[in-house]
Amino acid sequence: MVYRFTLRMSPKNEEILPKAFSERHHICAYTDFNRYPNGYMPWHWHDAFEIDYIQQGSVEFRTTEERITLDQGDLVFINSGVLHAYQSLDREACTNCAHIFDVQYLSGMYNSILEQKYVLPVRESDVQFYAFTPDSPYRVSMASAVTNAVQLCEEEPFGYEFDVRSQLCEFWKGLFQETEEMRAGAERRSTVDVERIKLMMAYIQANYAERMTLDDIAEAAGISSRECTRCFNRCLSLTPIQYVTRYRLRVAADMLLHTSDSILVISEACGFSSAGYFSRTFSEYLGCTPREYRASAGVIMQSADEKNPT
Fold first, then answer.
1. Are the C-beta atoms of residues 63 and 128 closer than 8 Å to each other?
2. What torsion, rounded to 10 degrees, do the Cα atoms 130, 58, 231, 121 define?
3. Phi, psi angles (nearest 5°) of residue 266
4. What is the distance between the alpha carbons of residues 112 and 6, in angstroms, rounded to a whole number?
5. I want to staple 101 with a disulfide (CB 3.0 to 4.6 A). Which of 21, 30, 105, 222 is the partner?
6. Pairing state between β 26-32 and 49-56
């Protein structure tokens, strides 16, 4: 089965995976990046590994260290615990298919020889991700293993679970060899910034509806406001306040799609000082007014919005 679901996150921005993941230790899922406001899939992380295959369009893949463009046919492996985000660069069509799986899915059991020899050396390395274009026979075979596994999940022939695991093991063998020099030459990077960012993201997510200051955000990570700003700039290329605003806008966009609340009520619920300011900020970020965004999604606005024009 190939899942289609929208990103859900815990208060610390850890992705909440479907129940099936805990049962299977693996899921295959499609993502349409343009279903997210402004084509932006926000910052998130998970303990599991992830392999993404770009089916259509182009995206900018972001970690706290780098930003790269991935085009149709490209792949990226994302290591466990890595904070990452996506920005669609193609408004017509931009889709991705992902395999998400944990250590035991490949190794078979805890502390096995496969885990010790092949899986943990990648997981515990400083290689945050490995992106590639299938431009050599070896990389073509790695890409084929990923797409074959997708097809098996779609068609579900008898015993397909064994075959999916086999295909991803083939990919992993290639990944292990392709990253050998990277793992050997990588310098140990500090995780302090990432852990601080996760703490501050959790604070923002819990308090976005309230008035908050830079000092409030910094206090959540036990650092100064100046270091807070530097940390956000180093990791996300945003100021803390810009991140707060964008988070509020994503929540507002979701409310516009899934509730019939008035624009005034939504602006207040998301921490904006006025409906007018909310509408202007929303238009600057998403290129349309809140009313237009709701209408474009086919949501029928009830009388509450009619009584509270912006």
1. yes
2. -10
3. -65, -45
4. 34
5. 105
6. unpaired
Over residues 47-72, mean pLDDT:
96
Q: pLDDT per residue over 258-302, tens digit each?
A: 899 999 999 999 999 899 999 999 999 888 999 999 887 643 333
The label of the residue with tokens 């098996």 reads 152
Give the C-alpha distances (Å, rounded to integers) separating 11 from 16, 143, 174: 10, 34, 35
How far apart, in whole angstroms, are the C-alpha atoms of residue 6 and residue 102? 20
**Cα dihedral sign, 16-20-23-27:** negative
Dist CA 310 CA 308 (whole Å): 7
